[in-house]
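We treat protein structure as text, and this decision shapes the records that our systems exchange. Below, we set out a record of this kind in full and without editing:

***
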Amino acid sequence: MGNRSFKKPILVVLPLIMSLLSTPGGAESWVSMQGHVPKQLRSATMIERAPADESVQLSLVVHLDQNLLDQTLEQLYGRGAPAKKHFLSSSEFAQKFGLADKRQKLKDFALANGLTVDPTEDRPESMVVKVSGPANVVEKTFQVRLNHYRDAKGQIFRAHETDPMIPASLGPHLTAVLGLSNFVGAAHPHLRRPALSLQKIASRTLISGGTGPGGFLAPADIKAIYGLSSATLTGSGQTVAVFELDGYTPSDVVQYETTFSLPNIPITFIGVDGATNAPGAGADEVTLDIELVAAVAPGLAQILDYGGPNTEPGRNDTYNKIATDNVAKVVSTSWGLDEQNTDPAEISAENMIFQKMAAQGQSIYAAAGDCGAYDQQNNSGCITTNGLRVDNPASQPFVTGVGGTSLTGSVASPTETTWNEFSISNGGGGGGVSAVWSIPNYQAGVAGLASQTSRNVPDVALNADPDTAPYAIFFSGGWTGFGGTSAAAPLWAALTALLNQQSAANGTVSLGFANAVIYQQATSSAYHNLFNDITSGTNGASGGGFSAGPGYDNATGWGSYKGLALINSASGELAVITLNNLTNVYTYPNPWDVRKNPPSFVAIAGVPAGATVKIFTISGFLVKDLTATGVSASGVKNAVNWDLTNNSGQSVASGLYFYLVKTSDQTLVHGKIAIIR
């Protein structure tokens, strides 16, 4: 990935191309902002015209210069990107992309048409301008007609049957007008509980060795399964944000932490668009997200719980708030909707915000869905008859989509396959091919995707099976086993918090957009040392969907993580350098004379047989790869001889070097400094 350019994928379907309409008399042309008509109208019945005085709150989402975005992200993540990146602060981003000017143009347009600008959310770094006004003023401003509709479930909501119109001069500054529709509840939480019928799961045995209540997975079990048992990292100093569309009961989280002897992480609820922390039907999702972040990263400085309404502007405004605040460098979201039922305007608005997050060094993980390759559900369960679909926002090119696996066997020695429960309940790990986005550069050229022209999901995966390895969650006053890709996303977010802690200790920056690093690591020769490659199972019903196989696949992506190994590799090996006296390094006969022929050598002693030794310049340039053979060198067992030439055959110049030793399972032994003069 490192030698590929890093360009933003374009929309396969260009929903927001604005069609020009001429206006008589030489007046300014107006454009239609296509992609705004709500998908919910397909199954709704119009009841009446919206009253003229009905209050309408809108989110006007800023449009950014895409060429400048491409250039910025290329400099951060593409070919030639520096090892120590300079991610933009919120204010730097605002200045670079002219947010002040763009926001002012949107405000001027709103005010000139009789709308009111909300002063409480009028922040210069925000990608959203909040405005409001009565329905008749909104109709005139955007040349739409607002009606009331009733959907198949009986919900009455406001919407419009035509796309909004704006002056052509406003087009370069406005991505979307959200809030013309106030439909509630489109996004679903992606979590699952164990099947209620014991007969259904008779053939599925609970993983043995779980130490949580009911034999479910406790934090220590998660760490044991995923290579974190020996990690001393806790997420200290890091902040994780969870994106939520419901509330939770704080005492549930406290009980979880107390039961497992975890610290009480400070949790702050940040309400968006008037939302409050009032637990509702989705409270189990919020509780699950917070507790699983705490399970793997118990030493976090804080968890920020961003809660908004489950409406189109509410969802977008909540993501925008996370990006505007830019406090959390890791974000987890487990709410989504299949692409075909998500309005293109919302998809495009989110994409602007996710690109901003990437430029600011924020990582965002999204659950890929619990209906396998179909990603569509109703009250009865998954719908498998409407074709293959993937989930938004997991399919967004600047989001890391997290799929689901199934664990069997024991905590000490687990077997991991694709999560698929279509035969016993109704669900499986989401994954497939996007109908919206073209293939991003980090996926181009990946084995198995050579013929693909669209974005592929998921990127990675983790255990999500509620019937073989449920996670112990304290919810609503009691213990319950949970699964779903809702569990996998926050666990990847928690791992990233550990990685960012390690990077901070190294003096390097946070991970940032995770896929840029994940695909680089996964396409390296170290892949199997860093990831559990899932090679069996499918995510479809009756043998359909996508099959797992070696390397990347649309069932489980690159697979699940081998925690500490991936942290050590992805955080940069500079992390482990220590300035020690080199008592276990000796030289013969005269290693500093690089002109000698045959070459001189440095011998590094005390290296475990089979380990790898990497020699670097202090600036990070790899000089040489060596392997310990266990053969004596000048009487010293398990020594490695470093002749003073680099991999290209050139003599090593005088200067400061360091070497790293890793055992065959990629566990770090030590890193030391060497001086050649």
